[in-house]
Automatic annotation (TrEMBL):
It comes from the Bacteria. This is L-threonine 3-dehydrogenase. SUPFAM superfamilies: NAD(P)-binding Rossmann-fold domains. Belongs to the NAD(P)-dependent epimerase/dehydratase family. It comes from Lentibacillus salicampi. GO terms for biological process: L-threonine catabolic process. InterPro entries: Epimerase_deHydtase, NAD(P)-bd_dom_sf, NAD(P)_epim/dehydratase.
Amino acid sequence: MKKILVTGAMGQIGSELVRKLRETYGTSNVIGSDLWKKEEVEGPFEIVDVTDGKAIYETAKKHQVDTIMHLAALLSAKAESAPQLAWNLNMGGLMNALETARELDLQFFTPSSIGAFGPTTPKKKTPQETIMRPTTMYGVNKVAGELLCDYYYSRYGVDTRGVRYPGLISYLTPPGGGTTDYAVEIFYEAVRAKQYTSYIAEGTYMDMMYMPDALNAIIKLMEADPGRLVHRNAYNISAISVAPEDFARAIRKHIPAFELNYDVDPVRQQIAESWPDNLDSSVAEAEWGFEAAYDIDRMTADMLGKLRVE
Ligand code: NAD
Ligand code: AKB
């Protein structure tokens, strides 16, 4: 049985990952942690600032965990408005969490992103191994983070594993300041106002994934036979390659009056244009059996159903 410490557990991924892990491994075996906590959140939880290495170490030791899932980070758009803070949190926090994993011999997961790629990367069917010259602070952090995780594996034998997530779509916790946030907002606004004004331009494709597929991917990767994992940090995974107008088409099948307008934000548009249209996930499929169950229509039906009920 695993015992897992999750950092950044109040965020878009963490809030759902903790629930899913508790369903899988039992409530007492999953310790959430973040800078803050919603009152209603139940189960073991610690306030931990990941820039404080001692705090991560002591929390992991106190709860005798065997795994860290390190999620605390600043996302792409926020990182672009505070690049120094992003470096300190994204790199400093990762280094601290890896050090704890090394010292206590823990399994380690942290997500990379499509943001690790840049404008010179092949845009379509982006290969697992290819040019990685990102032009954002977030991307620089993600590439450096992937290399650091590989280093901790090859130098110290820490069992580090990761995926390059696309933009994630979910209905429980709003996204925390990324370039792909529009892909969540569009569903909330479709239900609330039957219209959405997109800050990403028509025809701009990026990879997206529904949260259940993203969570299943973590569990599958962490449980995979280590002998089969050649790439480790980090695997391309892909589900739905979409532009804003594709979401509008899918939403109109449920809300025919839905209107999509555009008011493009130059900063986030430039970031989006520097990222791939869709990743090739064949290496993840071959090495640990990655698969995505949700296409755009199935995800749209589920998202709208869940948001209408709330
Ligand atoms: P989020 O912004 O929703 O949540 C991040 C959490 O980290 C927040 O709850 C925040 O309070 C916490 N945090 C911030 N500073 C902290 C600190 N100093 N100490 C402890 N906690 C701190 O982010 P998310 O979307 O859940 O992303 C989690 C990870 O997944 C990040 O590494 C992100 O780059 C990666 N990722 C996310 C997506 C996505 O679409 N959500 C896609 C690709 C990769
Ligand atoms: C962001 O837009 O920053 C994230 C990501 C794809 O990494 N959603």
